[in-house]
Amino acid sequence: MSDKEPLFSAKNRKLLTNPLGSDNPITVQVLGICSALAVTAKLEPAVVLTISVTAVLALANVIISLLRHTIPSRIRIIVQLVVIAALVILVDQVLKAFAYDVSKQLSVFVGLIITNCIIMGRLEAFALGNRPWPAFLDGIGNAAGYGIILVIVAFFRELLGSGTLYGFQVIPQAVYDMGYENNGLMILPPMALVVVGIIIWVQRSKDKSLIESN
Amino acid sequence: MENLINIFVKSIFIDNMVFAYFFGMCSYLAVSKTVKTSMGLGLAVIFVLGITVPANYMLNKYILAEGALVWLDPSMADVDLSFLSFIMFIAVIASMVQLVEMIVEKFAPTLYSSLGIFLPLIAVNCAILGGSLFMQERGYTSLAEATSFGLGSGIGWLLAIVGIAAIREKIRYSNVPAPLRGLGITFIVTGLMGIAFMSFMGIKL
């Protein structure tokens, strides 16, 4: 990789766009499922968590990438955990200061960003072997791919489950008067799994190369 | 005593780690291909949870929580170190996992090689850190309560992963629509298992 490579060369653009589709962290790499499912009953926590994960992942990728020649490989997991944990503490304190309600709603899931496999997975697979700028793009791209799934799942669960979007009522009262009811099942945890299952189904029907053998 | 049994049963069935909070989904999805390996991983998780939750409880009670350092000096009553809890908890967990890894490598080499990368990854299994964070957030009041919560959560996780592994072994012989094969059907089956587990919700001991 030469120093004169443009900031947004084709290769770097791929780092940003691949995770949105064919290399999506959730549906293809199977990373970071836990938080994706648990916070998606409403859109607002899903968006806040996505922003937090983006910040942590991009910064951690850059830091580890800068340190990649100095970290002995035997203790790299501990080093990575310390970097991630320090960043997550920062995010947690910021959320507690500026968005206390959402921070209460997310409860332990902010802390669980530490053990979110996306972050460890990307650090191991990408940041340890690449320069800071591509690592930064990879972090943003993967966090965006993660966020997209979160927002899609939260959109359907909030719309069908409570008839609201981002806290605003979108299904008009007239529809309720005609006998429409919110589907309470959508709010319950198991439906998140089914919704993600359906997203995987749709994605793999379109892109046959992703189909697994049984 | 009744309280302890209550916490234990509740953390196995009602607040099941996998079905109610989706903790540890990554290894849950990746290791659940055969019953044997998932049993091994489940036992390792029970062991690690059973040690780290009480250990982190002591850490929280005597070092991290607000006013916890009073035993050191009365003037430290308003020192609140709880912002450090993430990093302290993860350090305890990482060292415990290292210990388990060495024990398994010594006494069960076949299990060690079949678990592969997932044994060190228990350190970043959300179920473990989630157990400690829930323990802190729910404010269990004694070491015994924290221990029974840790063990119960571990057993609940084992139950879930062995259940899905058994189903996946059978599902291999069924005609699943091609795009759903593997990951997709596992998600949907887990969702159905979660709905089944919700029937425990009304139980009060």
Automatic annotation (TrEMBL), chain A:
EC number of the protein: 7.2.1.1
Enzyme class: translocase
Source domain of life: Bacteria
Localization (cell): Cell membrane; Endomembrane system
Membrane topology: Multi-pass membrane protein
UniProt xrefs under HAMAP family: NqrD (MF_00428)
NCBIfam families: nqrD, PRK09292.1
Family per similarity comment: Belongs to the NqrDE/RnfAE family.
Name the record gives this protein: Na(+)-translocating NADH-quinone reductase subunit D
Lineage: Bacteria, Pseudomonadati, Bacteroidota, Bacteroidia, Marinilabiliales
From TrEMBL, chain B:
Claim: Chaperone is one of the keywords in the record: no
Subcellular location: Cell membrane; Endomembrane system
EC identifiers of the protein: 7.2.1.1
Transmembrane domains' residue ranges: 12-31, 38-59, 79-100, 112-134, 146-167, 179-203
Top enzyme class: translocase
Lipid bilayer topology: Multi-pass membrane protein
Catalytic function, reaction form: a ubiquinone + n Na(+)(in) + NADH + H(+) = a ubiquinol + n Na(+)(out) + NAD(+)
A Pfam family of this chain: Rnf-Nqr
Assigned keywords, A-Z: Cell inner membrane, Cell membrane, Ion transport, Membrane, NAD, Sodium, Sodium transport, Translocase, Transmembrane, Transmembrane helix, Transport, Ubiquinone
UniProt main location, coarse: membrane
Sequence similarity: Belongs to the NqrDE/RnfAE family.
Protein role: NQR complex catalyzes the reduction of ubiquinone-1 to ubiquinol by two successive reactions, coupled with the transport of Na(+) ions from the cytoplasm to the periplasm. NqrA to NqrE are probably involved in the second step, the conversion of ubisemiquinone to ubiquinol.
Classification via HAMAP family: NqrE
Subunit structure and binding partners: Composed of six subunits; NqrA, NqrB, NqrC, NqrD, NqrE and NqrF.
Protein name per the record: Na(+)-translocating NADH-quinone reductase subunit E
Organism for this UniProt entry: Marinifilum caeruleilacunae
Name of encoding gene: nqrE
